[in-house]
């Protein structure tokens, strides 16, 4: 039985797709404001579709919903709403993923997206003291040339980004495809992370480490299938950004009681808990912390360790980390 409130633990959110914080109410409000026709007749109908069988079934709805995001103000409103909720749940630092290709292919300028998100981060910093930054994710199920063109389109303002990541449909799109893109990102001084081992095999985690030279693995839950990989992750203290409610909702894990989080901690891995796409998966970051605390009977020491790992695994400087530990 755990008795600590995880809400007040200072934590960093390291795996959060900002488009995945788009709640159905905001979908309808922005659709009305922007004059966009939706294929759903009500908030209830849309929310009723949030029962997924796998990653792709979620992604189909995720990409459909974000069509309502049109202006810089829309992106600022989206991120502002998320950052207020995150602050309420004890987040002191948030590294936000965004999917520019899902917007530029709809005719939205990448600067519109970035400027809106940065504005919300600046407001959150002054209003709540929460720090943060942006991680530009490439859509791995789209052509590699589009990823490279996206990166080059922001090269002149790379100082506005913390890093790059890799997301969308995983199986069939191994990290090795993106070796040159990640090499260029590192040359621009950007941090590098990648989704791997969510639905894809341990081999994709090895590729992310050895070819993309990532500093963190997003998800990585399938790493446990490969003892040599677990040893590598442990030895190099490569953080895993685990998203428990997401894993259950997308069917990677049958139920929260079966989640490998305790085994990962037991194996000495730097494991963090995050919310992935909270509007779609039934909870923000502390909902994930409290759900695993309950379902997996984690004690106060384990929960404090996970929160401390999130600060350690962040891209904050040493002084800023020290103030949160
Ligand atoms: N996995 C891969 N791509 C994504 C996800 C995810 O959980 N969420 C948004 N894009
Ligand atoms: Zn994700």
TrEMBL record:
Enzyme class label: hydrolase
The EC number(s) this enzyme carries: 3.5.4.2
Cofactor: Zn(2+)
Stretches assigned to coiled coil: none
Keyword Signal belongs to the record: no
GO biological process: adenine catabolic process; hypoxanthine salvage; nucleotide metabolic process
Entry's Gene Ontology molecular function annotations: adenine deaminase activity; zinc ion binding
Domain (Adenosine deaminase) ranges: 10-325
Record: residues binding substrate: 277
Cellular component GO terms held in the UniProt record: cytosol
Pfam families listed in its UniProt record: A_deaminase
Catalytic activity as recorded in UniProt: adenine + H2O + H(+) = hypoxanthine + NH4(+)
Catalytic site positions: 198 (proton donor)
Residues where Zn(2+) binds: 15, 17, 195, 276
Cofactor note: Binds 1 zinc ion per subunit.
Annotated site residues (Important for catalytic activity) in this chain: 219
InterPro entries attached to this UniProt entry: A_deaminase_dom, ADE, Ado/ade_deaminase, Metal_Hydrolase
Keywords, comma-separated and alphabetical: Hydrolase, Metal-binding, Nucleotide metabolism, Zinc
Reported function: Catalyzes the hydrolytic deamination of adenine to hypoxanthine. Plays an important role in the purine salvage pathway and in nitrogen catabolism.
Family: Belongs to the metallo-dependent hydrolases superfamily. Adenosine and AMP deaminases family. Adenine deaminase type 2 subfamily.
Protein name: Adenine deaminase
